[in-house]
Amino acid sequence: MIYPSEMRLAIRAAMLCLFLLGIARAEENTSSVPRLAFEVKLDTVLEHDDGKFLWFHPRAAAIPGFGKSGQPAVVMTLQKHLKVSDYYSGESVMRTDDYGATWSEPELRPELDWRHDSNGVVIAVADVTPGWHAATGRLLAIGAEVRYSKDGLQLGDQPRSHQTAFAVFDPQTGDWIGWKRLEMPKDQMFEFARCACSQWLVEPDGTVLLAMYLDSTTAGSVFSVTVVRFSFDGKQLKYIEHGNVLELDVVRGLVEPQLAKFRNRYYLSLRNDVKAYVTTSADGLHYEPIKPWTFDDGSELGSYNTQQHWLTHSEGLFLSYTRRGANNDHIMRNRAPLFIAQVDPQKLEVLRDTEQVLVPERGAGLGNFGAATIDEKESWVTVGEYFDSDAARKRGAKGAVFVSRVIWSKPNRLAAER
Question: Count of domains in the chain?
Answer without folding.
Answer: 2
